[in-house]
Amino acid sequence: METASIGQTVTPEFNHVRHVLAVASGKGGVGKSLVSAMAAVELARRGFKVGIIDADITGPSIPRLFGLNARPESSTVGIVPPETRTGIKLISVNMFLEDSNQAVIWRGPLLTSAIKQFWTDVVWGDLDVLIMDLPPGTADVPLTAFQSLPVDAILMVTTPQELASVIVEKAAGMAKQMHKPILGIVENMAMATCPHCGEAFELFGPSHAQELADRIGAPILARMPIDSNVTLQADTGHVEDVEMPSFAPVTEALAEYIATTSTNTAAPAKPATPQA
Q1: Of 35, 73, 231, 260, which has the fewest CB atoms closer than 10 Å, so is most exposed?
Q2: Domain count, the chain
Q3: What pTM did the predictor assign?
């Protein structure tokens, strides 16, 4: 097969994606990509068939987390996404660039077109869940994802600061307007542990996650600590080797959701219109 290019729509019989899960925040720099990657890794460890769409077109990071440098290939039915060493299928705009450090300087229409085509032009095959790592904000790309893809649940990611929770609440409001259920909240960088005495301390001050949870009506699934070992593994492309006990409740919630809820088809959902 040759190197792929966007443009050929995959016919429905080749794709059977049961669930599409979005990882969102509204706020940048809170760790959405790490949460997306860990969700994929942990579900794959449990035997689920998993894919990831790196929907942060202008700031893609998913391939780096997995140490995946392969380029998508073209087939007679569409784009074949590369797979990680544990079998997770990935698609990202970085995979189509000659230089992965090249800036993607696109206006809204090109960004939204890419998101749609990552769904319609990629041969995802048989997946239990397709995870979308969304960019910050509540504008073009998240809106297109919610309108054009059959997203059936959302994980919200926040950090302890009140500013982060205020912005995440806006993203949660968008999800509710689009009639997308929020499975829960993951608080990243919740605490750090002193390497000398072992005491945990709140590096960014008191957490506001519970206040956020009360306001948006979603449970806190996990509070993830700052861990230099996780940072090192992620930076060097070894996220599949990360062991994070604090993430276990997220995995449990996702596995239960996948196992007990009805499934999507590969056809895009009917567009929803947000309220003014």
Answers
A1: 260
A2: 1
A3: 0.89
